[in-house]
Amino acid sequence: MSMIRYAAAGLLAACSFAAGAQTVGRVTDPVEWVNPLMGTASKPELSNGNTYPAIAVPWGMNFWTPQTGKMGNGWAYTYDADKIRGFKQTHQPSPWMNDYGQFAVMPVTGSKRFTQEARASWFSHKAEVAKPYYYSVYLADADVTTEIAPTERAAQFRFTFPKSDASYVVVDAFDKGSYVKILPGQRRVIGYSTRHARGPLPKNFRNYFVIEFDQPFTSTDTWQGEALQEGRLETEGAHSGALLGFTTAKGQKVHMRVASSFIGFEQAELNLRRELGQDDFDATRAKGKALWNGVLGKLAVEGGSVDQTRTFYSSLYRMVLFPNKMYEIDAFGKPVHWSPYNGEVLPGRLFAGTGFWDTFRALYPFLNLVYPSINREMQEGLANAFKEGGWLPEWSSPGYANVMIGNNSASVVADAWIKGVRGQDIETLWQALKHGADNEGPMQAVGRAGVKYYNELGYVPYDVGINENAARTLEYAYDDFTIYQLGKALGKPAAEIDIYAQRSMNYRKLFDQESGLMRGKNRDGSFQSPFNPFKWGDAFTEGNSWHYSWSVFHDVAGLAELMGGRKAFVDKLDTVFTLPPIFDESYYKAVIHEIREMQIANMGQYAHGNQPIQHMTYLYNYAGAPWKAQYWIRETMDRMYAPTPDGYCGDEDNGQTSAWYVFSALGFYPVTPGVNQYVIGTPLFPKASVQLENGRSITLRARGAGRYIDALRIDGKTAERNWVGHGELMQGATLDFSMSTRPNTGRGIRAQDAPYSFSRDEKP
After folding, report:
1. Which site from 141, 352, 582, 666 is most exposed, i.e. has the minimal number of CB atoms within 10 Å?
2. What is the pLDDT of residues 212-222, one digit of tens each?
3. Is pLDDT at 179 greater than 70 in this prediction?
4. In this structure, is the dihedral angle defined by the CA atoms of residues 108, 113, 116 and 118, taken in order, positive or negative?
5. Does the pTM exceed 0.90?
6. Do residues 536 and 584 lie in contact, with contact meaning Cβ atoms separated by under 8 Å?
7. Between 409-418 and 372-389, two packed helices, what is the crossing angle to 10 degrees?
8. d(C-alpha 460, C-alpha 471), whole Å
9. Structural domains in the chain?
10. pLDDT value for 147
11. What share of the chain is helix, strand, coil (3-state, %, to 5)?
């Protein structure tokens, strides 16, 4: 029985059968519950996740993935594809962002086939094994099995060839400028790729790679584009590659070791020796598995179904990939990085590959709770980015990317410090937040587009040529709140920080009493007209007014007051689900995939497949109807997620959509990053535990059937409130939920049971 079959047997052994329902007991090998193919059945017109199988270690610098798409296609791997074109080193955060520094390898047999079409091979998922720490697939046309085991900056490959005197491995350094050199005496290939999808990047951007084999070459060729350069050992140009020949017996294994560096060949060599050392393929695989179990094993769930358990750990896997390390360890054991901001090699850490518009909501709060040490490194990286580029990145891929809106680095920095992450250069980060909040950047997605209008009028006007203006205003107001909270935590004087408290109330300026929703406003103070609350884009970002009107994370009580009080607020929340999924796509001139995903979900105007509305279900807790939050949260978990190739209901953006699920499955959610509270939802598993880095643990028990909370006890004391404090959890806490199939309409209904709201609790 193979190792993989043993893993499957162990999975089944962890399950028990009760009353005809299969439930999972204590999980001891969490990585084996991960399905890296979850979300891969996607396309530009419809996202079921827009993921690819990332064969990597948590937060590693380099990932590997089988490449089914054509070179340069952001959809590198799609589940319905028939052929694999190569095995790509990737740093891609999403198909929409595409990749940078990529190159690929591919085994072939029979003839010297090296272009992406000629070398492509049919494959089947029946002959594919995808684990976070291990990938294997049978390539039918070549009659070769390829296996991969990764480390942070290196990997081992094992190719099992047929009997042939014409066995080859193709090295493809990709187009847009690349270089390869074969060193036959060392059984090596070195090279670099310069391809990147987002910019601008410094002209010296290169991903240097070093590849070594355990077998001598029987032939050595290079190629440019579609032209083979027989016998040539070195080539540089638009699209460089190498073709390495072997004579193989049936079942012969050719081992390949590879590492890369953004700094240079010498550092790539150092990465290879340090991370692979004398390990064979199986040792690297075993170390990778242990590393994954150490990270995933911080969370343990039991008593759920097989699908719930697989969805939970598959989502957690997505949450610990990005942002990924862009730093390396030099010969003296010190962190060092090539800077995408100024092109220099500098000391210290750096991370890349995340968009704060998505991840400020739940991914970073999760790191602050469960993995604060890695976020401490990320915060150091943000300080370095500011020192090197003059701005905090809102989307790093790997440098500044002009994508999405907002100034949500403020939330990411503030929430970390407020929740106890320490060790970063917080004064530099404080200056970075103020600089980003008070200035327009070199592009719209850096700093604040429209900041002069925002600071003068309290909003970004609809009619001054700045797109998505209402969404920008709402996010700037929340970001100002987080800057104010961080300033208070740092003891900054009122004269410096009170302006941010005042601006955090700017959301009120866009509230339209007539519709009861947020609406674009012109420079002269009149509302934009005509107003269609179902119109996507325009004043909003990848959504409409029904989605963005809830983006007052810091002052839900104030928003409820604008909407007519708590009952009217609850009625408005209900309406999101009872409205038909109609839409106006005229701004985009096409039905974008986010619209289609809302339309087909059969949840009215609730568009969980995109980020702006994901917190909305929790807002019932602020208005005395927590049982309605419990209904819709569980409904979303049950209907919108599954551990399958079509298992997400939209983009899985850098871990955010997964973070919603993992937090929600535990039973609470960070509606307001920058505040030391989590809003209570409804726990999915009968038992869950979280091992904290401080040595303490959180235990969550849900007794009884159903999705509704009948009673809650926190550390043995009855809690009517609809929130739990971060400090309580960090001390080690036990939350006991008594669950019911019927809603308890008398629990958590008082005004004092509601979570934090700025205007109510601080009265700015």
Report:
1. 582
2. 999 999 999 99
3. yes
4. negative
5. yes
6. yes
7. 140
8. 9
9. 54-297 (2.70.98.10), 299-762 (1.20.1610.10)
10. 99
11. 30, 25, 45
